[in-house]
C-alpha cells in the first residue's frame, strides 16, 4: 500500500473542497472531486519545516532570502533546463492574483485580452472584473479527441482586436494538453509579431504523464523571455494552495517594473512566513515525493480510462498529457448543465466542475480531479456508473 492510498479525513479542517458545500449551493455528503487541490498530505520535508516554524512560535514578517531564490531557480534549471536570475522573481500570494496584476499593468480599461477557451475560469474573471474585453480563440477538438490551437484564428483575433496581452495556460487546464515546443513557438512568434505580451501560467508544469514533456515558454527563444510573464508556484505540485505563495518570473525589466508597481498599489508587500518556509522545503527536498506522486496519479488515470472504456463507454476521456484535472466528454448523455447536475450531483453524489464554468465550449463536459486515493476514485466511478445506467434507461 502506498502512502497515497491512505484516506485522510478532510472534513472539519476548514477545507474549501470539503467544508463549504452548502455555501456553494451543493448538498452535503457528495464526494468532492472539484477544486484543484489534492487529498494527500504535503511531503514530509515540508511538514517538518512548517512544524519547526510553528514550534518556534513567533510569526513575524518575513521576506525571501537568497537561499529561497536559489532553491526556486535550481528547481526549474534542473527539471526544465530553464535558468533565470533570482532578481527576476516577484513573489505573489497566488497565480490568479498575478494574472490580475498583469491585466492591470499591461492593458487599460476596454482593451482586449486573449484567452483560449475552454480555460480555467479565473482567466475570464480577471479580464472582465478589470473591465477589459475577453477575446476568445477557442481551442478546437479534432476528430482524434485532441484539442489544438487554431493558429489562423489566434492571429486574426490579435490583429482584429488590437490585443496586447495573451493569457496562456500551459499545461492547459481543463483539457490537459502539454503544449509542444513547436506549438508554443508558433504562438509565441505570433504574439511577438504583434507586440502582444504573453503571460504564461505554468502552475501545472510538474504534472506530465509519461511521454509528455513540458517546455517552459520563455526558454524557447531569447526573445520570448523578454516578452513574457512566467507564472510558477509550488502550490499544485506539493499541495500548498492554502499557503499562498507563487513565484512570477519577469526577465524584462520594463515589464517587471510595471508589474511590481501594480502590486504596490494593492498594498501587498511580503509573502507569508508559512508560504516561504514551505516553498523552500518543497523545491529543496520534495522532488522524490513528487515523482512518486506523479506515478500514483498516472495509476489513477489508468483506472479512470479502463473503467470508462469497460463500464461507461458513453463517457469519453479526453486523454490528458498533463495535470490531475481530467476533462470528460459526456455529450452523449447530458445536453446541458441542468441535465449534468441531475446526473452527477443528484444521482451519482459527486461534486465535479461543470464544463460550462470554463466557457460555453465546455457544455456537456465535466472536469474531474483525480488527485485522491484510488479507493475514493473507484467509489466515485462506481457511483457514476450506477447513475448513468439508470439515467439512460
Ligand atoms: C491554470 C491555473 N492557474 C492558477 C490556479 C490557481 O492558482 P492560485 O491558487 O495560486 O491563484 C489554478 C488552480 O487550479 C490553475 O489551474
Detailed description of the structure:
With 393 residues, the chain is of the alpha/beta class. The chain has 2 domains: 3-43 and 288-391, Aspartate Aminotransferase, domain 1; 58-285, 3-Layer(aba) Sandwich (Aspartate Aminotransferase, domain 2), CATH 3.40.640.10. The protein contains 14 helices and 15 strands. A 5-stranded mixed β-sheet has the order 2-10-9-8-7, with helices on both faces. The chain has a 4-stranded antiparallel β-sheet with strand order 11-12-15-14, with helices on one face. A two-stranded parallel sheet has the order 1-13. α5 (122-128) links the parallel β3 and β4 (133-136). The radius of gyration is 21 Å and the shape is globular. The two termini are 38 Å apart. It binds pyridoxal-5'-phosphate (PLP).
Low-confidence stretches: none
For the secondary structure, the number of strands is: 15
Described by strand count, sense and barrel closure, the largest sheet is:
5 strands, mixed
Share of residues in helices: 40-55%
Widest sheet: strand ordering? 2-10-9-8-7
| CATH superfamily caption of the largest domain | Type I PLP-dependent aspartate aminotransferase-like (Major domain)
Please state the second-level CATH architecture of the largest domain: 3-Layer(aba) Sandwich
Count the helices. How many? Answer: 14
The structure class reads: alpha/beta
CATH names the topology of the largest domain as Aspartate Aminotransferase, domain 2
Rg on CA atoms, Å: 21 Å
User: What is the 3D form?
Assistant: globular
Amino acid at each position: 500500500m502506498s502512502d497515497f492510498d491512505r484516506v485522510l479525513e478532510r472534513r472539519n479542517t476548514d477545507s474549501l473542497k470539503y467544508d463549504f458545500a452548502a455555501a456553494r449551493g451543493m448538498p452535503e455528503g457528495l464526494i468532492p472531486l472539484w477544486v484543484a487541490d489534492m487529498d494527500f498530505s504535503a511531503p514530509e520535508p515540508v511538514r517538518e519545516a512548517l512544524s519547526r516554524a510553528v514550534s518556534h512560535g513567533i510569526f513575524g514578517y518575513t521576506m525571501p532570502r537568497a537561499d529561497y531564490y536559489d532553491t526556486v531557480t535550481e528547481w526549474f534549471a534542473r527539471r526544465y533546463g530553464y535558468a533565470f536570475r533570482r532578481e527576476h522573481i516577484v513573489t505573489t500570494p497566488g497565480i490568479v492574483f498575478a494574472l490580475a496584476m498583469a491585466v492591470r499593468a499591461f492593458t487599460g480599461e476596454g482593451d482586449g485580452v486573449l484567452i483560449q477557451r475552454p480555460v480555467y475560469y479565473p482567466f475570464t474573471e480577471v479580464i472582465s472584473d478589470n473591465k477589459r474585453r475577453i477575446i476568445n480563440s477557442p481551442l478546437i477538438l479534432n476528430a482524434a479527441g485532441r484539442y489544438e490551437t487554431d493558429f489562423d484564428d489566434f492571429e486574426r483575433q490579435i490583429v482584429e482586436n488590437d490585443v496586447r496581452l495573451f493569457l496562456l495556460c500551459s499545461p492547459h487546464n481543463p483539457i490537459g494538453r502539454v503544449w509542444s515546443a513547436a506549438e508554443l513557438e508558433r504562438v509565441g512568434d505570433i504574439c511577438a509579431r504583434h507586440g502582444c505580451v504573453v503571460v504564461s501560467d505554468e502552475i501545472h508544469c510538474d504534472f506530465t504523464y509519461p511521454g509528455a514533456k513540458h517546455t517552459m515558454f520563455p526558454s524557447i527563444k531569447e526573445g520570448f523571455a523578454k516578452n513574457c510573464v512566467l507564472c510558477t508556484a509550488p502550490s499544485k505540485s506539493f499541495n500548498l494552495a492554502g499557503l499562498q505563495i507563487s513565484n512570477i518570473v519577469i526577465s524584462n525589466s520594463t515589464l517587471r517594473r510595471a508589474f511590481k508597481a501594480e502590486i504596490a498599489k494593492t498594498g501587498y508587500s511580503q509573502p507569508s512566513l508559512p508560504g516561504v518556509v514551505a516553498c523552500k522545503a518543497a523545491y529543496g527536498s520534495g522532488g522524490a515525493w513528487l515523482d512518486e506522486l506523479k506515478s500514483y496519479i498516472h495509476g489513477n488515470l489508468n483506472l479512470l480510462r479502463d473503467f470508462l472504456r469497460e463500464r461507461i463507454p458513453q463517457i469519453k476521456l479526453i486523454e490528458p498529457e498533463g495535470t490531475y484535472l481530467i476533462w470528460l466528454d459526456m455529450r452523449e448523455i447530458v445536453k446541458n448543465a441542468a441535465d449534468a447536475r441531475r446526473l452527477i450531483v443528484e444521482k451519482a453524489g459527486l461534486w465535479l466542475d461543470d464544463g460550462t464554468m470554463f466557457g460555453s465550449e465546455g457544455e456537456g463536459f465535466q472536469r474531474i480531479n483525480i488527485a485522491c486515493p484510488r479507493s475514493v476514485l473507484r467509489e466515485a466511478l462506481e457511483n457514476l456508473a450506477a447513475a448513468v445506467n439508470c439515467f439512460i434507461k
